[in-house]
Specification:
Blueprint lengths: L7 E8 L10 H16 L8 E4 L6 H9 L5 E3 L7 H14 L5 E8 L1 H6 L25 H16 L3 H15 L13 H5 L3 E3 L2 E2 L9 E9 H4 L7 E10 L15 H12 L8 E4 L4 H10 L8 H5 L18 H4 L7 H13 L17 E8 L4 E8 L1
Parallel strand pairs: 2-3, 2-4, 9-10
Antiparallel strand pairs: 1-7, 1-8, 4-7, 5-6, 8-11, 10-11
Helix pairs in contact: 6-10
């Protein structure tokens, strides 16, 4: 096989209808997002020869590709939780760069909120009791409790306060206020976050992500395909992935996430430093995820995340490092494996298409570099992608 090496760009991105979409199926939302992403790129679906999907059906990429009328010659069904999409993007970029595909479509759709409202499913207390999880689930070690335990460890080790964690939720909501697609836009205060019902100590309700319906799609393409696109390319500069643990007892340090490895790899491969990044899209199922991921990506030293987030640094307007510019999973939308939404928002920001929430550099120019970092499970996996204009 002849090996080639070519640059890879994000050619199209889109969201489906999001929020409260009780009259659609996950397949329909994924298809809606896919059509919109292709339209965004100005390309026909015939250009797509690679496809990646997870979280839906028994044979995720096969079933979803069939629904979309695609017959790809390259597929990926990697499923590592919320980090799935950054990891898939890395795999797709490698495949395109080496000539195994020319255009790969990543598609996700979920009706998580509608399914719970209709009684088709319940909230997930745990991911099951098979394999290594059998040793933890019987003792009531719920999914949220795993995150809460990790947050408490950081508080004990480094003096991080609950008020600092609450600041993450407050600033996410402030960014969401500028996003017409966000589910919750009304401002909240630290006191309001702290006064909410306790979910898992130390998390109150607003420390936890919302649950929504929605879909997203991202089209990655080779440089020769990008020349025919209607949009300016956003280049994939570097990627990294890492898996850490399944059982909490196998996690060496609750204050270190797998982004410490995936981020280091992505930045090294991109040839850039964290200090050069203009904005970050970080998986935020809980406030602690944002804080510890910022540390592990190198935006501040280990243990300094609390002080870092407490200074308004995450805000679109006036923040030193705008984070989760759409409001994130805490305020915008969170239909399940939200990692694909991070890539969509990062691309929109780099293109200058984010409307009121558009990030600008100090000289009023558009951002040049962004990072999207997804986390899966209970800090079990991480995928990091560095993007640039």
């Amino acid at each position: 096989m002849t090996r080639v090496s070519r640059n890879v760009a994000v050619a199209g991105v889109a969201l489906s209808d999001c929020g409260r979409v009780g009259d659609a199926t996950p397949y329909a939302l994924g298809a809606q997002a896919a059509r919109r992403a292709l339209a965004d790129a100005g390309l026909d679906r015939s250009v797509v020869d690679g496809f990646a999907s997870a979280g839906l059906g028994t044979l995720a990429p096969v079933e979803v590709a069939e629904y979309l009328g695609l017959r790809p010659t390259w597929v990926d069904s990697t499923s590592v939780g919320g980090a799935t999409w950054e990891v898939m993007a890395a795999h797709a970029a490698d495949a395109i760069a080496t000539g195994h595909a020319k255009a790969v479509l990543l598609v996700y759709g979920s009706t998580a909120r509608a399914d719970i409202k209709a009684g088709r499913r319940t909230g997930e207390l745990s991911f099951g009791t098979r394999g290594p999880l059998q040793f933890e689930a019987p003792y009531g070690h719920t999914l949220i409790a795993k995150y809460a335990m990790a947050a408490r460890r950081h508080m004990i080790e480094y003096g991080t306060t609950i008020e600092q964690l609450a600041e993450v939720a407050v600033q996410a909501r402030a960014n969401a206020a500028l996003n017409p697609e966000a589910m919750f836009r009304a401002p909240v205060t630290v006191d309001e976050v702290l006064a909410g019902p306790l979910i898992a100590d130390p998390f109150t309700k607003l420390h936890c992500c919302l649950r929504s319906d929605g879909g997203a799609a991202v089209l990655l393409a080779a440089e020769e395909v990008v020349r025919d696109c209607r949009t300016a390319p956003v280049w994939v500069l570097g990627t990294g992935e890492h898996v850490s643990h399944a059982a909490m007892s196998e996690w060496p340090d609750f204050t270190v996430s797998p982004a410490a490895v995936s981020g280091r790899l992505a930045f090294a491969r991109a040839g850039v430093r964290p200090a050069e990044i203009d904005l970050a899209e970080i998986y935020d199922a809980f406030t602690y995820m944002t804080l510890v991921t910022l540390e592990d990506l190198g935006f501040c030293a280990k243990g300094e995340g609390g002080a870092f987030v407490a200074k308004g640094r995450l805000l679109v307007r006036g923040g030193a490092l705008p984070v989760n510019t759409d409001g994130g999973g805490l305020s915008a939308q969170h239909p399940g494996m939200r990692g694909l939404f991070l890539l969509v928002e990062a691309v929109r920001q780099l293109r200058g298409e984010a409307g009121e929430r558009q990030v600008r550099r100090a000289d009023a120019t558009l951002p040049a570099l962004a990072v999207a970092s997804g986390t899966g499970g209970w800090f079990c996996s991480s995928g990091t992608v560095v993007l640039g204009r």
